[in-house]
Amino acid sequence: MPWVQLTDVAVELGERDVVRGVSAQVSEGELVVIVGPNGAGKTTLLRAIAGLIAPRTGAIRVRGLDPLHAPRRTIARELAYLPQQYELAFPFAVEEVVLLGRYARQRGLGIASDDDLAAARAAMAACDITHLAPRRFDELSGGEARRVSVAQARCQGARCLLLDEPTAGLDPAHARGIFAMLRAQCDAGAAAIVVTHDLDLALRHGGTMWLVAGGRLAARGTPAHVLTSAQTRAAFGLEIHVGALPSGAAFAVPS
């Protein structure tokens, strides 16, 4: 059974079709990177998979469950969703923000267990924010806050991550570190769907690429194949050059 199954999914916002006829699936161990121009429907598609928007037509299943109608705690054990914008109304400490990801696994008063604390420490270490644990979230830089929100999603313990621009505002080293972490998790049997504008990191770490353009799944395949396709050239209005460094590492740049 695939982790995520999309069958002829269309999503309407207002009276406008934003996602049109998308059919695809994501399997265990797969890191899917979604690319496309601004306004193409990438975020809307991700929100529909998370069960936050009802599709107008078609079906979405997460491990056989309908994410729109299944109990939220049940879905939260399967999916962790990171939106583009993450805000908090209270001045929580960083460690407290990360621990918020454990809500679906807690009972009673929601007091953190030893397992919750261990998961939070592992997530903070993976996102290089351990030293920020006692800091107030609302006092962090934009990049620091983004790494905390990624750590919260990881701390949730879901087997599939839905991340919308997880590396936005990050310096190159931390952006690469986030993608390397996702690649390692998928290699260990998890799955991830990541919307990104960083074509270079998408090429290096993604296993499958979806090009979304005009609300449709315009191309899919290996990142190198999709980035050099005619569909990508038409979507972005320019060529994407894919090459290799002397070290053998692949890179992608507009040309």
Question: Nearest-angstrom radius of gyration?
Answer: 18 Å
Order of helices and strands: EEEHEHEHHHEHEHEEHHEE
Low-confidence segments, given as residue ranges, are none
Strand content: 25-35%
**Largest beta sheet: strand ordering:** 5-6-7-3-8-9
- Structural class call reads alpha/beta
Average residue pLDDT: 94
Q: What is the 3D form?
A: globular
Characterize the largest beta sheet: strand count, sense, and whether it forms a barrel.
6 strands, mixed
CA(first)-CA(last) distance: 40 Å
The number of helical elements comes to 9
How much helix, percentage-wise, in residues? 25-40%
Number-wise, the strands total 11
Overview of this protein structure:
By secondary structure, the protein is of the alpha/beta class. It has helices at residues 42-49, 72-78, 94-99, 114-126, 142-155, 172-187, 199-205, 223-227, 230-236, and strands spanning 4-13, 16-26, 31-35, 57-62, 79-82, 160-164, 191-195, 208-213, 216-221, 240-244, 250-254. The strands form three sheets. It has a six-stranded mixed beta sheet, with helices on both faces. Strands 2-1-4 form a three-stranded antiparallel beta sheet, covered by helices on one side. The mean pLDDT is 94.
